[in-house]
């Protein structure tokens, strides 16, 4: 019996290249060109957005097809991995590619996408209803799990014991990114990361002034009775924008919640930032009389406008 099985295995043939190529084309076509619904489920964007992204990667970031994989296929594999946290072996089956091909092309697209930060990060816009604030937003940090050498675990470990990198994000009032600073250790204090952002050549711009105790103004409250209460209430609402933006980010790209990244592959490349002006929870920034007066005048004007609208 064993002899028969051994002889039978000799007759097993590999799938011809042409057949594998057609299977690969069919998988790509169904994922991207079948319908907008299927395309969104696979890549988190419709067919038009996918085509625009591929165009930007080619013309601006310099992505080119390789001998074995064209641009659209490698971008489709890249997005499919990010969206569903797909393992290499699963992508091998779906796209009929070797594990080495998938890994190398994923890294190619990753580095090229980062070059698009000037195009992908939103430019700061005036805050609606507050003419005095030219470019405004809110900032916060989030943790992304990473793989680091055992000797560095202590630096990247949080109080909860997770090995992570601390990513600073700044959002406009719509929840779009306008600034990103990645690569800091998970144990780093937020104030230290903020100081680093402020000290960089294309630094994060912030008005100088006192910090605000947002916690005092959170939760259900009565209508504000003074300009200070109204200003702090509006100030605190920025927290909701941040939490929603990070929630959407991690919900859309499942890999951010599930996978541990190799920190060496990300720190140097992801540190691509775009400067903006932000008013938010500021810690350990020197008090400025000029800024304090500007803030108080703004608070009075906002409160007066609000009272007139609610009479």
TrEMBL record:
One of its GO terms (cellular component) is nucleus. It comes from the Eukaryota. The keyword Signal does not apply. Residues 139-264 form the DDE Tnp4 domain. The keyword Aminoacyl-tRNA synthetase does not apply. Keywords: Hydrolase, Metal-binding, Nuclease, Nucleus. InterPro entries: DUF8040, HARBI1-like, HARBI1_dom. It is found in: Nucleus. Residues 31-114 form the DUF8040 domain. This is Retrotransposon protein.
């Amino acid at each position: 019996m064993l002899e028969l099985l051994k002889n039978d295995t000799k007759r097993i043939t590999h799938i011809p290249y042409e057949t594998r190529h057609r299977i690969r084309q069919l998988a790509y076509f169904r994922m991207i060109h079948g319908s907008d619904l299927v395309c969104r489920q696979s890549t988190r964007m419709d067919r038009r957005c996918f085509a625009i992204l591929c165009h930007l990667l080619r013309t601006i970031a310099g992505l080119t097809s390789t001998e074995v994989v064209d641009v659209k296929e490698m971008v489709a594999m890249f997005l499919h991995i990010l969206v569903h946290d797909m393992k290499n072996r699963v992508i091998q089956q779906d796209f009929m590619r070797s594990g080495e091909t998938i890994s190398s092309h994923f890294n190619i697209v990753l580095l090229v996408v980062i070059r698009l930060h000037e195009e992908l990060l939103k430019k700061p816009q005036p805050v609606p209803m507050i003419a005095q604030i030219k470019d405004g937003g809110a900032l916060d940090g989030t943790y992304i799990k990473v793989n680091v050498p055992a000797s560095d675990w202590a630096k990247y470990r949080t109080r909860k014991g997770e090995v992570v990198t601390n990513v600073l994000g700044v959002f406009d009032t719509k929840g779009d990114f306008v600034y990103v600073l990645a690569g800091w250790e998970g144990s780093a204090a937020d104030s230290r990361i903020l100081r680093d952002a402020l000290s960089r050549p294309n630094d994060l711009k912030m008005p100088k002034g006192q910090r605000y105790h947002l916690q005092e103004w959170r939760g259900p409250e009565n209508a504000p009775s003074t300009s200070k209460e109204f200003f702090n209430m509006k100030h605190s609402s920025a927290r909701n924008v941040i939490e929603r933006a990070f929630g959407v980010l991690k919900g859309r790209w499942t890999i951010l919640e599930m996978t541990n990244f190799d920190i060496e592959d990300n720190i140097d490349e992801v540190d691509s930032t775009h400067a903006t002006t932000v008013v938010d929870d500021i810690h350990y920034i020197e008090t400025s009389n000029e800024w304090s007066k500007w803030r108080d005048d703004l608070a009075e004007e906002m409160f007066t406008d609000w009272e007139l609208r609610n009479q």
